[in-house]
Each structure stands twice: as structure tokens, then as C-alpha cells.
Amino acid sequence: MTRQSYLNKEHIALSTADVEYHPLLPFLPPNAKVLFLGSFPPQRKRWCMDFYYPNFLNDHWRIEGEVFFGNRQHFVDVDAKTFRVDDVVAFCRERGLAFFDTATAVRRQKGNAADQFLEVVEPTDIRALLRQLPHCEVIVTTGQKATDVLCAYFDISEGPKVGASVAIPNVCNSDGRQVFLYRLPSSSRAYPLAFDKKVSAYRKMFAATGLCHSLPVLEAGLLLTYDLGPDIVAFSTKRRGHQPVALQKPDSPYAAFNINRYCGDDAEHVARNRAALCHFLGIADEQLVMPHQNHHTCVARIGKDFFAMDADGRQAALEGVDALMTDMADVCIGVSTADCIPILISDAAHHAVCAVHAGWRGTVGRIAEQAVAAMTHAYGSRPAELRAQMGPGISLGSFEVGQEVYDAFAHAGFAMDGISHRYPARENGEGEKWHIDLPVCNRQQLLACGLKPEAVADCGICTYQEHEQFFSARRLGISSGRIFTGIVMRK
């Protein structure tokens, strides 16, 4: 199948050293609700693909990847240093995004794409574009030059400020809807605004047009928070407690606030919730670090080397990891659970934190002890100075196990009379089954490492019993959402 070309070969042939004609054909899907109008493309020597926003150093497609998929690298071919143009075009057709520029011919006063050095020789007939876009509701500009040209074209006396919109006088689409001019921050890295703030501005515009769901509002009731010291944010996410309605049905085992990508949930739902949490924490998506756990005892250190890797390298470094530690500020590390015990550890003296996933296998492997040892080795932590918090997990009364699990704890040297009890079997009420107290097991490990008893806290919430508010795999099934228990240090 031959790839469609968006090059305007006639214009390219007309261009001279003095006047440059637009090298791309207008991209105008008939279902488009949003029309992006920039000033003019950069010189072709700066292109990495034959489509709009072709400069690899421009973040437009990274912003859209973050907005719609929760991943700035979604459209990026890192190794080839380009964007996956077929994916970009298919996405724009599906979502209804149109592209062109406010000038069809320009004179470059300098050899770059800076707006202040572009002289418009021929402005675009924007009304002709709109006639081909019967459902267009918003024209978006991302630079001062394009905004000024468009305001002059439509006789708009005062253009919108960045992040705001104004109605375009006497312009409606074929559905009778008013068409608005929306000004967004430039996706050029030269524009002095942080990436995550640009993402927030773009997301607001897309949500207003209905092209992406607005973010859930993180109410106070959505996060269970903990006190682990000054300048530390520590929390567990709840299953319920946010508005508006989630993408999942209310009775879905993933509804409503799941940010785990590995449990079978819808990717858009995960991305939306993850973006909401990052916005709440004031961090970029890549600063929210979650391992792909396997119920073992690997502890990974998150430092500058981790963030120096590309996305694939970071993903590989998180495979098979069940505990994370870091001494970096404004990086949220965390673990996912749905009956297992999450543990957060803070070391105020050495400005380091750790997040631990302690399922029964990890508990048998003494992952809590290994996490403390890892912090001692990496940061010089002293156990007597550490504070620990256990989040929601399954309780003794709810954690019914088979004989093989009981034997695993016994063979690992646990004092079984202090961590186990026999209760009537849950399934048919006949006979008795062993139950294991995972919170007590992990508390014992932390105390054995040298933590002070008053420094080890347990929230006391049983996920099995509180499955309406917290995810529980035993109640909802393995194919269900996960609690995220995270910790982040502020500067």
C-alpha cells in the first residue's frame, strides 16, 4: 500500500530563494472539529517527516501523546529520531484534527522559522478552509504571528490571551455552532513554559471540544494520606471518590480510579487517571514511576541514571521490580496492590524514600528487610531513624490460605503462633483453613531491622472488607484495578 503524500509539489516547485510557498497540502478531515493554524513550517532541512510539526525538537506530537495516551513518547520513534507519521495521521483522522497555516507564501528574513523573521507574502484564505470543515468549532493558534494574522483576517479587535478563547465574529459552522479562536502556548521548546503546563493548556482545549475527556477532579476523599515527615507527600489511591463519571461503568472492576497499566484496564482510562494524579502532584508523567511487579524481592534505585535512559530502557529497568527507592525530589515512586501490603519508608536525615510491594511471596522473601538494607547501602540510612507506613491490604481475618502457603512461612522461619490462625473455611463453612497476618509479618521484619515500634504505622484498612473503596483482587478478581501507594519528596 502506497503511503499518501502530503507534500504540495506544485508549491515546492514555485518556491525560490526569495519567496517560499507552503510545502504541505492542507490536512482537512471532513469530521474535524479543531483546525490548527500555525504561521509556517520550518525549512525542510529541519524536518524529520513530511507532515505538520515536522521538527523532531518541536513538542507538538509529544504534547498530544501525553494528552490522549498519557505518554509523551506515544508517537515518537526514538531510535530513528522521528515521529511515526502513519500513526499521527490515523490519530488525526480519527479524532478530527485539521492542520494548515495562516500563510501560503512567506519571505524568510533569516534562515529560521522564528515568527519575528517571517514576512507574510500571501495570507491563507481561511474561509475557504472552513468551507471544507463543516463541523469545525475551534481554530487554534500557537504563536503570536499566526494569532495576529488570523485576528486581522477576521477583524477581531483583541485576540485571546494564551489559554483563552474568543468568538470569531459572524462565523458559524454548518451545524450552526459559533466558531472560536483559541490561543495555546507554542509547542516550540523556545517558548518559556514547562512541558507539563503546555500539556495542561492543550488538554483543557481538547476537553472543551469534547475530543478528550476532562480530568477527574481529585477530591480530598480520593487519596488516603499519611504523615511521614515534612516536605513528603505519601498516599494510597482509593477506588472511589472523584468526579466526573469515569470512562468505566460504575460496577466495573476497574472503576473508577486505577492508574495501573498492567492489569488489563482500558489504556485511555488509565492515561486519564494517571494524568489527573500527576496534575494533582504537580509533576510530569515521567516523574511518576511504577514498576511492573512479579511478587519477588528486587529493589531498584531511581536516580539520574534512570531518567537518562530512553523510554524503553526505563521500562526494562522496572520489569520484575517490587520495591523502588530514590533520593530525588519531585519524583513519585510507588507500588500497586489489591490485597498485598504496600509499605512506604522515609529517611528524613538522608532525604531518601522507598516504596515496597509485599505480597505473601515477597513477605516470605523478607522484602521489607531487603528494602531497609538497600536504603542503608545506597544512602547510608540508619534503621533507627526511619519511619514506615503500611497502607491498605488484606487482614488476618480475610486472608485465607492453603497449607502450602502456611508451610512457606514456617520454612522461612516465621513464628507461626504469632502470625497465623485457623478459621472456618470460607467456601463451604466445613472444616478450618489457615489465615496469615501479612501486616504483622511485615511489621516484625521492620522491627527486626532496627526501626522503632512507634515509627512503624499501619492504616488498619482491610481491602477485602473495604472493596467498595479499595481494590481487592480476592473480591473483584485478578482482572481489576489496583491501589497505587506512592511517596514524593518536595524540594
Can I get a quick summary?
This protein is α+β, with helices and mostly antiparallel strands and 491 residues long.
Give your account of this protein's structure:
There is one protein chain. The protein has 15 helices and 26 strands. The protein has 491 residues and is α+β, with helices and mostly antiparallel strands. The protein has a six-stranded mixed beta sheet with strand order 16-17-20-19-21-25. A five-stranded mixed beta sheet has the order 5-2-8-10-9. The protein has a five-stranded mixed beta sheet with strand order 12-13-26-18-15, with no helix packed on it. Helix 2 (60-69) packs across helix 7 (267-281). 44% of the residues are buried.
Task: Give the arrangement of secondary structure elements.
Elements: H1 9-14, E1 20-21, E2 34-38, H2 60-69, E3 76-77, E4 82-83, H3 85-95, E5 97-101, E6 103-108, E7 118-123, H4 126-131, E8 138-141, H5 144-154, E9 165-172, E10 178-183, H6 195-208, E11 217-218, E12 223-226, E13 232-237, E14 242-243, H7 267-281, E15 288-289, E16 299-302, H8 304-308, H9 311-317, E17 323-326, E18 332-337, E19 341-347, E20 352-358, H10 360-364, H11 367-379, E21 387-390, E22 400-401, H12 403-411, H13 416-419, E23 420-424, E24 432-436, H14 438-449, E25 456-458, H15 473-476, E26 483-489
Parallel strand pairs: 2-5, 2-8, 8-10, 15-18, 16-17, 21-25
Antiparallel strand pairs: 1-6, 3-4, 6-7, 9-10, 11-14, 12-13, 13-26, 17-20, 18-26, 19-20, 19-21, 22-24, 23-24
